[in-house]
Amino acid sequence: MRRRLRALAAALLALPLALAVAPSAHAADPTTMTSGFYVDPESSAKRWAAANPGDGRAPAINASIANTPMARWFGSWSGTIGTATGGYVGAADRVDKLPLLVAYNIYNRDYCGGHSAGGAASPSAYANWIAQFAGGIANRPAVVILEPDSLGDYGCMTQAQIDEREGMLTGALAQFSRQAPNTWVYMDAGNPRWADAATMARRLHEAGVRQAHGFSLNISNYVATAENTAYGNAVNRELSSRYGYTKPFVVDTSRNGNGSNGQWCNPSSRRIGTPTQLGGGAEMLLWIKVPGESDGNCGVGGGSSAGQFLPEVAYKMIYGY
């Protein structure tokens, strides 16, 4: 917070140039309003390490995973959502750190994949939920990843369902624009293995990415950073040629240290990637999925549910075996 006035003044002076290069609904830069990224004190990795100090895996998990800044995911499990997001960004604000949040509650979530099925009960329920999500953040600095997989998960959907989903995302961006002016929102764009760059650029545009700060890649996936960066640049070329603008993008590097073996659901022999930081070929490299949290009842996470922390998986991911 101590840098806020200076950052706001600088952002306002730079606004015309920023809009010419990459239109955005937000003028302020939350990375300059804070002194680094927030470490979630209640992440599943942090809680497991604290609860199991005598476990031989705990020191490595605590040092390599639990103390790395990463996102907190918010959904139906979060209780009163405005209170939940407000409490989280408030805690980060008090220590002058930038929090990473994931909004993961869209109606018909993971409709085609199914492992993380759920979400709001209706489009109107989602509109109310996301409005409260944004309102809880208010004018404090934050980074939000908006609805992972939502633009990639089209394979079994009708055009009416696609239109409905894109409308929900557009409405969500409007809420952040109105209520959370110091939040950078990244609309999720899947990963390079899901849809070609031209298709994803069209989906992003139709869902309103012009009003977002940017887009996100590789959330909860394993694809190497270089491949994601090439894909993000290709998406931007399509956005530029088709619609006349480009957007910054971020990459989830939490589990891509060994790249992908072609499997997305709890594959073996993966490794943690570059810790959260600015730059790295994208605007930011971020830990969005917590290493060790299951993708679902599959692969080396057989018998688990999506989001469940698996210490043995986390431990092996530190060393890549």
What report would you give on this structure?
Helix 5 (123-137) runs parallel beside helix 6. The protein starts with a helix and ends with a helix. It has an eight-stranded mixed beta sheet, with helices on one face. Helix content is 39%, strand content 10%. It is an alpha/beta fold and 321 residues long. The model is unreliable at 2-23 (pLDDT under 50). A hairpin with a 5-residue loop joins strand 7 (277-278) and strand 8 (284-286). It contains nine helices and eight strands. The longest helix is centred in the middle third of the chain and has 21 residues, at 159-179. The chain has helices spanning 4-21, 44-51, 58-66, 81-94, 123-137, 159-179, 197-207, 225-243, 311-319; strands at 72-74, 100-103, 142-146, 183-188, 214-217, 249-252, 277-278, 284-286. This is Glucanase. The active site is at residue 149. GO terms for molecular function: hydrolase activity.
